[in-house]
Amino acid sequence: MVSSDSVIAPHTSAEAYSAYRTVASSVLVAGAQELKRKDTHYKLAIELDHAGLSYIRDGGEEIAVGAMTTMAEIEKSPLLKGLAGGAICASLREVPDRELKQRATLGGLIASKQPFSMLLPILLSLTVDVVLEDKGRMELRDYLSCPPMGELITEIVIAREFVYTAYMAYRSETGQQPYLTGAVTMGEDQWRIVVGGRPGAAAIAEKASEELSAKGLQARENVAHMVSEELDFENFGPCSEQERRELTIDMMRILIKKAWKGFSRQNSLTMKSVKR
Questions:
Q1: What are the GO MF terms of this UniProt record (predicted)?
Q2: Entry pTM
Q3: Beta bridge pairs of residue 66
Q4: How far apart are CA 246 and CA 252, in angstroms?
Q5: Of 148, 153, 202, 223, which residue is 20 to 30 A from 139 by alpha carbon distance?
Q6: DSSP labels for 70-88?
Q7: pLDDT tens-digit map of 111-134
């Protein structure tokens, strides 16, 4: 259990970050209940509940989500439900733990680089930036590949794109943590393929994505094998490295076709709407 000599609840992200950087032994937490999750003692615990970081805002070509916005709020957001064919909200509806969704925040998910998250591969397959206090914006893909920087995520910015995202996760049992996740996004001129639960954090299969973007659906089988060969996999939990590679091939076959069908349907509905 985490303990601390003192707890503060700043009213701005700037105040929170200043305290975090000033006190060497300090920790950022999303509420006092999070202090029970680790066995560490700190001089200072900085709660972010009152720092003004819980919101979902329409920015026109992009949507800004405060780092303290909970998964439950994201799941119900009218602004987010139509993005990428509804993948963001739909993936959260499949999480059975309501209490977890009420507590877990988007900023916390990204900062911890959860390796078995289903939402993280979806976000990585889209155009998403994270905003860091005092550091500005950086692409999500760059943030996930960086070593721990001791930074404070204040906002997540999701571009409004005409894309469709297909996703899936392999689990031992319904409701259990997945041991392999994947997301494939199709747009007008580009595909993006992401695999998580390798068990490393979600990663983009760059070469496979380029191949699929260049050759289209006809390259599906070859691309499925490319993904399994391009990314690193390990033995972990109920699944071995080789099993993960084999499952990735099957998963890609399914997701590429599903993304193509979803995008085609979405495009067809849009064309009909324009004609009216």
A1: flavin adenine dinucleotide binding; oxidoreductase activity
A2: 0.92
A3: 155
A4: 10
A5: 223
A6: BHHHHHT-TTTTTGGGGHH
A7: 989 899 999 999 999 999 999 998
Parse the chain into domains and list their residue ranges: 3-47, 56-159, 164-275
Q: Are strands 128-132 and 153-159 parallel, antiparallel or unpaired?
A: antiparallel
Residue with tokens 């495009």: 267
56-159 CATH choice from 3.40.1170.60, 3.40.190.10, 3.40.1170.10, 3.30.465.10: 3.30.465.10
Both tokens of 147, joined, read 């070593």
Closest Cα to residue 19, out of 49, 53, 45, 51? 45
The predicted-structure confidence for 191-249, as pLDDT tens digits, reads as follows: 999 999 999 889 999 999 999 999 999 999 999 999 999 999 999 988 999 999 999 99
Maximum distance among all alpha carbons in the chain? 65
Token pair, residue 50, equals: 């009152």
6: Cβ–Cβ under 8 A, 6 or more apart, which residues?
43, 44, 45
